[in-house]
Each structure stands twice: as C-alpha cells, then as structure tokens.
Design brief:
The protein contains 14 helices and eight strands. The chain has an eight-stranded mixed sheet, with helices on both faces. The two termini are about 15 Å apart. The N terminus is likely disordered. It binds adenosine-5'-triphosphate and magnesium ion.
Length: about 280
C-alpha cells in the first residue's frame, strides 16, 4: 500500500474542495507578505467570501500580532487533543477565520495515525466550507515553505524593487517550476516608490522567467510605499481598516477583487491539506 493510501483518509478522495488556496510567499524576508495576506483576506471577507487565513510561518509568524488577536492555541493543541478545530480558529475582522501556528503540521510526524487522519479530515472540511484559504508563509525556500506553495492553487510572490528581493523572488519561482508546480504564479511588487518603478520591476522579472524558465508570471499589481501602512502596523490594525480611503487600501482592494473573481468552485480530489501532508511525509 502506498504512502498516500495510508495517510489520506478516504474522505479527501471523494470530497469537493471548494476553497481556492493562495500562498503568499517571497524569497526575501520583510517584503510585506503578512500585511498583504491579512489585508487581502479582509477585503475578500468584506465582499462576502468565507476566508481562512493560515499563519504558516514556522518561527516568526506574526499574523496574530498584525491582526491583534491572542493566539494562545494553534494546530499543535488540536493535534494533542486539547482543543477542537473550532477552538483554534480565531475570528478576525470582517469574519476572517485565522489559524495560527501551522508549524504544528510539522509535528505530524510524531503523532499517531488516528490524530493525523482527524486533522486532515477537519482541515479538509474547512476547505470545503470556505471560499479562500490564504497562507502566509515564512521567507526563504525551506522545505516547508515550498511544500505549502506547491500545495496551493495560486502562489502570490511578493517582491520589492530591490535587486536582492527580485533575485530571491526569482529563486522561489525557479524552485516552484523545478518542482513542477502546476498552479498560477503571480507577482506583486510592494513598497514601490512609484507605480512606474513597480511596473518596471514586474516586467524585468516576468521577462527573465519567460526567457529562462519558459513560464508566464501573472501581474498581480504594484503597491506603493506608504507611511500609513507602517502606522497601521504600529496600531496592530490592517491598513484597509485603519486607513480605508488611502491609495494603498484601494490597491489592496483592487488586488483582492481580481483574485476574488478567480474563486469559482472547483473540484479537487486531494485538496490543499492532503497535498501538504503528502509533501511532509
Ligand atoms: N507598502 C508598504 N509601505 C510601507 N511600508 C511597508 C509596506 N509593506 C510593508 N511595509 C513595511 O514592511 C514591514 C514588514 O512587512 P511584513 O511583516 O508584512 O513583511 P513579511 O514579508 O511578512 O516579513 P517576514 O518575512 O518577516 O514574514 C511592515 O511592518 C511595514 O513596516
Ligand atoms: Mg510575515
């Protein structure tokens, strides 16, 4: 019997998994992943989408800090049987559902098969019952980050206009292509001095990806550098709530709307979490 047959409960093979899974990643750290994930999640939720935000940053996850929620419980508490999945979900702004510490998923190796099945079945149910799952990954191209991205339908790579961020973003795209990622890869340029500078960054990266990797990187848009975003972070309030009328909030809402249009129901016989578990074991 193959590994997958052993680890995947029957339920995931037959269910329709409705949510589209978007992994927000970057290569280089500190380029805005967590802010983009959180604000996109809120914009989608405000347009009546059921959104689950997953903090998949194993070490420095700070979605809870940004969303000002008390993340006492996470997936590890569910695995140990202390808490149910409902108890580890925190309800954030606009009804976004937030799961902290997907790091627990790494400790799946140490738990019994019964718990692993339970976790997967519950997470699969979550995916079936929601419209979008947004994964805020850690920086870098570690095995776990790549695993989350490969399991997603759509990877949103965040870069800035700096050469180091662009190189790392390209490195991530290269790893995805090298692992035969078959979903969509989009690029968002954050903290641009001007929209024109951001567009140039997109064009350069997309051109290199086309030339050397033979793939199309979709244009997810440009977000300018805005002091109000920093100020919102200090207030522990996502910028779309703290400064809803700012240009950056409008750009984030436009990005969410473009993504939202692609959230049509889909059929998937394994589902995101099934793929994650397959990757880890
Ligand atoms: N558009 C922007 N304008 C101004 N400052 C920004 C913008 N985007 C991000 N920042 C700044 O960059 C900081 C880091 O953002 P964020 O935590 O979202 O990055 P990250 O990619 O998730 O970082 P990490 O790799 O550590 O997880 C923010 O606290 C903010 O100060
Ligand atoms: Mg982050």
């Amino acid at each position: 019997m193959g590994k997958e047959a052993l680890y995947l409960p029957q339920i995931t093979r037959t269910q329709r998994c409705r949510a589209q899974v978007l992994a927000v990643t970057s290569g280089k750290g500190g380029v805005g992943k967590t802010n983009i994930a959180a604000n996109l999640g809120i914009c989608l939720a405000a347009s009546h989408k059921k959104v689950v935000l997953v903090d998949a940053d194993m070490s420095l996850g700070n979605l809870d800090v940004l969303m000002n929620i008390n993340s006492k419980y996470n997936i590890s508490h569910m695995l140990s049987g202390q808490k149910s999945i409902e108890e580890i979900i925190h309800v954030g702004p606009e009804g976004t559902e937030i799961i902290c510490g997907a790091s627990g998923i790494e400790s799946l190796a140490e738990v019994g098969e019964f718990q692993r099945h339970r976790l997967l079945a519950e997470l699969t149910r979550l995916q079936r019952d929601s419209d979008a799952i947004i994964i805020d990954t850690a920086a870098g191209i570690s095995r776990s980050v790549v695993g989350f991205c490969l399991a997603a339908d759509h990877v949103l790579v965040v870069t800035t206009c700096e050469a180091t961020a662009m190189t790392d973003a390209y490195g991530m795209i290269k790893v995805l292509v090298g692992n035969r990622f078959d979903g969509r890869i989009s690029l968002v340029v954050n903290m641009a001095e001007t929209i024109a500078a951001g567009r140039k960054t997109y064009q350069q990266l997309a051109q290199v990806a086309r030339r050397f990797l033979d793939i199309h990187v979709y244009d997810a848009g440009v977000l300018v550098k805005d002091e109000r975003l920093r100020s919102a972070v200090r207030k522990r309030t996502p910028v779309v709530l703290a400064y809803p009328k700012s240009q950056i909030s409008a750009s984030l809402a436009a990005l969410a709307s473009r993504l939202g249009n692609g959230l049509a129901a889909q059929t998937d016989d394994v589902g995101f979490f099934g793929k994650v578990v397959n990757w880890f074991f």
